[in-house]
Design goal:
FAD/NAD(P)-binding domain, 8-stranded mixed sheet
Length: 511
């Protein structure tokens, strides 16, 4: 079977859906091919135990770009907005922070936090301006690129001499040193450290963790929300928007290879043997899978192949789901506190020590945990009177020495439960069922090389002008008609939609 389309998109993750909808609204005939039965990529909701559903990978929304919402006229159904972050203390002296406000710390730390949040919000807003447009290319004489670079320099300069100096000082720094200089409370430093390293192969002392923190702030100023029905509801909305715009979506249609004819794409072939023709192919898969497997090194220059092969994208975060017969007891907790985002990160030193084993292919015996109880705000996720607990656990390296065998899995599950038990004494009595997704499982289920949520580390050498690699940061690959639109491109990972939107506008501009 051979069908002809104006554009074919590989992967119905949220960026692929955003890209397809924008192209279709401009009159393009678009086909989206999705390997799984369900659209949404890693932003899906699914049942993991009878009657219990959960956001399978990403579980909180904090980066979805207003420009995407406006362009596609989306009406998000948010069940809980502006969640507080609660960093748990064993004795109940928890701290809470949200939107520049904080409680449970000294007056001095409160003042320092307000100042820190204000500055980080300002710097995040600067980044946000450039998240929603293709980055300039370095080393060219193109007037558009030069103008954008000049504007970036001007935007940094007009912050004022003091703020400009601080921005340039901080952007490549580790967050540990900044937090040590500003705060006393270890829970506050542990919580902010976790905000910076979540989903990365970085510790608080690693360079670039100020950058990762600013990237988080560049979404919605760090505000966190919970969609009704989990992250899958957002993907379902994008799917319907794409279909209503004229996009054809085929699920259970994994692409085997991208077809190349005399240096240009001519379409794709699915594993089912179907061939679809188009002079434009847009991959929402990660850069390595796209270029090294779907295209193949034989079609690429050796220098480009080397750069893509060296793109760092080994995941370090695991996801764990619990079906509960009741909510656990947490010292000095109110019912409304269970609706918030909870962190188990007692100090910045705890977070750094959790990272150390991952450097040597071992999981953390005392992991850092981000915990939510989404069923407290959204009773559609669990049977009456029962609950879902969703946990992101770091660090769980993709390249475990023994390859995530059953013993490794059991040890990490035990480590997660041990960390939970310090704050939830009766957690063992609450658990009905559990599911662990290691980076290896994430790779298999969501087709992400290395199981890295962000399709690649977010560091200065893999950011903006050089994401995924230098010379190819504007979505177009070195084969005519081939583009990327996934999180491995600018601006990066998280549920933002910016990669898909930016790629669509680049393609439309080229006609």
């Amino acid at each position: 079977m051979t069908d002809k389309f104006d554009a074919i998109i590989i992967g119905a993750g949220h960026n692929g859906l955003v890209c397809s909808a924008i192209l279709a609204k401009k009159g393009k005939k678009v086909l989206v091919l999705e390997a799984n039965e369900q659209t949404g990529g890693a932003a899906v909701s699914r049942e993991f135990h009878d009657g219990f559903s959960v956001s399978a990978c990403a579980h909180l929304l904090y980066q979805f770009q207003p420009d995407v919402i406006k362009e596609l006229n989306l009406q998000l159904d948010i069940v809980k907005d502006n969640l507080e972050t609660i960093v748990l203390a064993e004795d109940g002296s928890h701290i809470k922070y949200s939107d520049g406000k904080i409680s449970g710390v000294s007056d001095e730390d409160e003042k320092s936090f307000n100042k820190f949040h204000k500055r980080m919000t300002k710097f995040g807003a600067l980044l946000k301006t450039y998240l929603n447009k293709p980055p300039a290319r370095l080393g060219t004489k193109n007037s558009k690129d030069l103008l954008m670079l000049a504007k970036l320099g001007f935007d940094i300069r007009r912050m004022g001499k003091t703020e400009m100096r601080e921005f340039l000082r901080l952007i490549g720094m580790n967050i540990h040193d900044e937090l040590e200089e500003r705060f006393e409370n270890p829970l506050l430093k542990g919580g902010l450290s976790t905000d910076a390293i979540m989903g990365t192969h970085l510790g608080p002392r690693s360079p670039n963790t100020i950058l990762t923190y600013l990237y988080r702030m560049a979404g919605c100023e760090g505000k966190i929300s919970l969609p009704k029905g989990g992250m899958g509801s957002l993907s379902n909305m994008l799917t319907e928007t794409a279909k209503n715009s004229g996009v054809e979506i085929k699920t259970n249609s994994e692409v085997k290879k991208i077809l190349i004819n005399e240096g240009s794409v001519s379409g794709v072939e699915s594993k089912n043997g179907d061939i679809y023709s188009s002079s434009v192919v847009i991959s929402n898969a990660d850069p390595k899978k796209t270029m090294m497997h779907l295209v193949g090194p034989k079609h690429l220059e050796i220098r480009f192949t080397h750069r893509i092969d060296n793109f760092r994208m080994k995941g370090n975060a695991a996801k764990m789901h619990f079906a509960l017969n009741k909510l656990p007891k947490i010292n000095k907790f109110k019912d409304s506190d269970f609706e918030q985002r909870l962190l188990i990160a007692p100090s910045e030193h705890y977070v750094e020590k959790a990272f150390n084993p991952a450097k040597y292919g071992e999981s953390s015996p005392k992991p850092v945990l981000e915990v939510t109880f989404p069923s407290v705000s959204d009773n559609s996720l669990a049977p009456d009177g029962k609950h879902v607990m969703s946990v992101i656990a770091q660090y769980a390296p993709y390249n475990m020495k023994s390859g995530w065998n059953e013993e490794d899995r059991g040890e990490f599950i035990a480590a997660i439960k041990s960390a939970l038990r310090l704050h939830m004494k009766d957690i063992d009595d609450c658990i009905l069922a559990e599911e662990l997704l290691t980076p290896l499982d994430i790779e298999r289920e969501f087709h992400i090389t290395g199981g890295h949520w962000h399709h690649g580390e977010f560091t200065l050498d893999q950011f903006m002008f050089v994401r995924p690699v230098a010379g190819f940061s504007q979505y177009k690959m070195p084969i005519d008609g081939l583009y990327l639109c996934g999180a491995g491109t600018h601006p990066g990972g998280g549920i933002s939609g910016a990669c898909g939107r930016n790629a669509a506008h680049v393609i439309l501009e080229k006609g």
